[in-house]
Amino acid sequence: MASVKQFQVTFDCANPERVARFWCEVLGYVVPPPPKGFDSWEDFNRSLPPERQDSAFACIDPTGVGPRLYFQRVPEGKVVKNRVHLDVRVGTGLVGEERLAALEAECERLVALGAVHLQTLYADGVNESCIPMQDVEGNEFCID
User: Fold this and answer.
1) Cα angle 13-68-89, degrees, rounded to a multiple of 5
2) According to DSSP H, which parts of the chain are helical?
3) What's the whole-model pTM score?
4) Helix (H, G, I), strand (E, B), or coil: what is residue 74?
5) Where do the DSSP E strands lie in 46-93?
6) Cβ-contact 132, 140 below 8 angstroms
7) In a structure prediction context, what are the per-residue pLDDT tens digits for the chain, which is 144 residues long?
8) In a 10 Å sphere around its CB, with 0-12 CB exposed, 13-18 middle and 19+ buried, how is residue 29 labelled?
9) Is 103 helix (H, G, I), strand (E, B) or coil?
10) 45 Cβ contact list (under 8 Å, min separation 6)
């Protein structure tokens, strides 16, 4: 049986580059080099037929450890809650007030990038605190 060596996470969105650049900032990801034969992504984009221009964008983990994120333009808008979402793990190993402070600091940083703070879920004796949010196009994610 073959094992999976890599995977990517794909986002449907209206503006792939905008959403990709948001997630680059959130995760410390980078835009990969343009395809061979092109000096920039702008040059590559201009080479496409008009209907395919601005239709996709990607970002990668510069360490090569995390999955590639791929953003593709779709005609329909987001209408329901995500069935899958990303957890941005900034509080790993922290508990109580120290964890909450780390989550709130990250929330503040991401709101400045265009994210929306939905609510803060406080530790309840079973679960630790987390902060549900939305990215620049309304996709849900959590700061955990």
Assistant:
1) 90
2) 16-27, 41-47, 96-112
3) 0.89
4) coil
5) 56-59, 68-73, 86-88
6) yes
7) 667 678 899 999 999 999 999 999 999 999 999 999 999 999 999 999 999 999 999 999 999 999 999 999 998 888 888 888 899 999 999 988 999 999 999 999 999 999 999 999 998 888 889 999 999 999 999 999
8) buried
9) helix
10) 53, 54
